[in-house]
């Protein structure tokens, strides 16, 4: 398979590189958060390829390889972390596949303009990787044309900033497992009905949140895919976490690996045969992940691709965290030099990377769940017994 980019892709690369150079110049604080999302949206850089022929939602038409080119240039320019990626990369493709015309017309242009941010209401305290155990309930009120949602979601990224949340909830009382679930679009600005609490991690950051729904309201016409079809919609959404989005993630991984290599050169760890072998192994595995993602980029239906990708990058990134600490040496376990002062305890970049990577094989679907999916849906092995 030819993994090279063609002349059209390289022309697109020049356009992307020039736009990023012009818009990232000047005051760094200007290009961040919502303001940066609106800047991207104004020139059509959000939602590349949603509609490859017309770009009718305000986005640019782009082939899959052009989307990869944009992601590469974005990473190389060290552009700001995106706060709109959940709406752009997860919800939007789901609405294109499962939503109706009214839903697409209402939500996709706002995402493409960078005006509305989204979060994902999937995991719960008792239903993390196993989403079929969801207990959050949504009861329909035909008189008002709404659903009332009660329950709790956890590990919800960007919930403290999001305008909307797509929520997997049980709409048929008494159902079990994947039956009776529905996919609802819920506005977050509902004081007294939705409460967001940040979760402090061992790295000191608070990137995730708990979200409590107490009779939160969602319009019935914001139900995606029909009542009781939430499992199919949710699984379709998770399948979007492959291809271009996986390649974007790998570009960040490459930058992290480069930093670890430079660290090994400074500390002398690169001169040790064992550590040098580990560094080479990390590089080779990253290349393999990239080729696998490119190979599956145009796949129409591959139920195992998302799970294979998750297993690969989860284990790889956790190993990189271990390796970063090893090449840093004993100093990696020591607090910053001013730890005796009254300043709050702060970790450096290597320590944060190590601690955060502990969760890589758990969040987004644990390794055990991914292996079960591959075994049952791809290899056709007997299903695990579930009482």
Automatic annotation (TrEMBL):
Its cofactor is FAD. Residues 119-214 form the Acyl-CoA oxidase/dehydrogenase middle domain. Residues 9-115 form the Acyl-CoA dehydrogenase/oxidase N-terminal domain. Residues 228-379 form the Acyl-CoA dehydrogenase/oxidase C-terminal domain. The keyword Signal does not apply. Keywords: FAD, Flavoprotein, Oxidoreductase. It comes from the Bacteria. Coiled coil: none annotated. Pfam families: Acyl-CoA_dh_1 (PF00441), Acyl-CoA_dh_M (PF02770), Acyl-CoA_dh_N (PF02771). One of its GO terms (cellular component) is plasma membrane. GO terms for molecular function: flavin adenine dinucleotide binding; oxidoreductase activity, acting on the CH-CH group of donors. Belongs to the acyl-CoA dehydrogenase family. PANTHER family: ACYL-COA DEHYDROGENASE, ACYL-COA DEHYDROGENASE FADE29. This is Alkylation response protein AidB-like acyl-CoA dehydrogenase. It comes from Streptomyces netropsis. The lineage of its organism: Bacteria, Bacillati, Actinomycetota, Actinomycetes, Kitasatosporales.
